[in-house]
Amino acid sequence: MKPVELRNEELKKAITGYLxxxxxxxxxxxxxxxxDVNQHCEEIYGELLNEVLKRRHHKLKLVSANTPEHPxxxxxxxxxxxxxxxxxxxxxxxxDKLNHTFHEINDQRQYDGFTLYFMFIAxxxxxxxxxxxxxxxxxxxxxxxxxxxxxxxxLLQGNTSKSTQTNYESVLNILKYHxxxxxxxxxxxxxxxxxxxxxxxxxxxxxxxxxxxxxxxSGQSMKxxxxxxxHRINHQxxxxxxxxxxxxxxxxxxxxxxxxxxxLLLEIGSIVFEIDCTEKYDxxxxxxxxxxxLTEKLLGKIYTTIRWxxxxxxxxEEVAFTELSIKANEY
Length: 331
Description:
Helix content: 55-70%
Largest sheet: 5 strands, mixed
Low-confidence stretches: none
Oligomer: single chain
Number of strands: 5
Strand content: 5-15%
Shape: globular
Order of helices and strands: HHEEEHEEHHHHHHH
């Protein structure tokens, strides 16, 4: 394989990794009924599609349709009026979504002669049928206009290996700008800061998880173990939560441009809030199975976040998890 072809494989793999991580994050947030990442994706995919679709639409320049300059653009997120292209950026790859968008556009004749694309940012969900869900007659929307993240690298293929490399590099630069980190030194510091701030909470939550396992395995009465478990949650876990929450905000802010890590930090905050609410429970409300699930979910998200941070910095996972263990043992 020639050097340029090897380089192209590396670039393609990097692009696929970024897109897969973003797709997974969108799915996670959708499951939580949170759509903050979708708004970021409109900007990201607007820039990506300008590059990806330039062979189909020369000098394509998609911009947000959700601005005062484009009133009443129902069903549309991106638009290039000069080249008559519009895009719906959505996490719902369903026939209902196709049908709903077509109905909204059907009432707006300003799209007469436009080409409509769908960018399904959460990947495939069900088989889409344009025969049953027909677009309005005055627009063009065919199978090749229904795009998933996995389709993008194929559309970047140029006439030569060199032109393909140029296309790949342009798209990777866009992804790095939006999903990478500008300052690796600052990111490394924030990674270790996260490890240090979360260590006490990790130890307390892991202790509760072990207690839940012991309780469920032994079949003890709720009266004895239940009171001990509640005391552990109320006076140790919740105390660590109160200490950790103020420290999380600057850490989240530092990772705001790395959407996979930013999303994980938001999820950690949501789970922590759920556990913190158990402080209001009494013994009659205690669901040991649910508490165990929450602790496992929280620990899993914390460990995944540390691994993602290590990938984004020059810190090895071994160093990060050793630091976590040392700090946790101090509590």
